[in-house]
């Protein structure tokens, strides 16, 4: 598996991975209209907008299988709700189901930490749906569950988010 920085040319493939893994992971967790609405086209617009944003140190990395097929990605930057805090945020890691449990997610995590450190951020948070089956992944990487819940309103439903913190990225 090759991990490399993503480029604008990768957006269509990243969007395909995002939409597919979103549907596979959240079909029984998130409201049905929200899951069905997460198409590659909708995801592509999210990533294009993120690349245009100034001042939040946005990055993404891609996982490339043989034949240059993208099978996963991670993105992040400054913590979105308080960008002035100096806290980094891992926005997402998505890996296609058939490539999970092979170290790809961990490699994307490590590349993300490196990008945050290069941007001058010394700590990192990730927000995860409380009902996500992948919370154990962040726990295995020594993220500390933080007190407090964030509510996300989606399609008339309230979803609960929890956060994991890595207070000193230099020690990872």
Task: Give your account of this protein's structure.
The chain has 172 residues and is an alpha+beta fold. The protein has a domain at 2-121: Gcn5-related N-acetyltransferase (GNAT) (Aminopeptidase), CATH 3.40.630. The protein has 5 helices and 8 strands. The chain has helices spanning 11-26, 32-37, 40-52, 104-118, 135-140, and strands at residues 2-5, 59-65, 69-78, 88-95, 124-129, 144-145, 150-154, 157-166. Strands 1, 2, 3, 4, 5, 6, 7 and 8 form an 8-stranded mixed sheet that branches. Helix 1 crosses helix 3 (40-52). The longest helix is centred in the N-terminal third of the chain and has 16 residues, at 11-26. The chain is globular and about 40 Å long. The mean pLDDT is 90.
List keywords for this structure.
8 strands, alpha+beta, single chain, Aminopeptidase, globular, 5 helices, eight-stranded mixed β-sheet, 172 residues
**Portion in beta strands:** 25-35%
Give the CA-based shape. Answer: globular
How many strands in all?
8
CATH H-level homologous superfamily name of the domain at 2-121: Gcn5-related N-acetyltransferase (GNAT)
Structural class: alpha+beta
Q: Based on the coordinates given, report the CATH architecture of the domain at 2-121.
A: 3-Layer(aba) Sandwich
- Helical proportion, percent range: 25-40%
- Low-pLDDT stretches: none
Q: What is the CATH topology descriptor of the domain at 2-121?
A: Aminopeptidase
**Rg measurement, Å:** 15 Å
N- to C-terminal separation?
21 Å
- How many H/I helices? 5
Main β-sheet, in a few words?
8 strands, mixed
Mean pLDDT: 90
Order of helices and strands: EHHHEEEHEHEEE
CATH class of the domain at 2-121: Alpha Beta
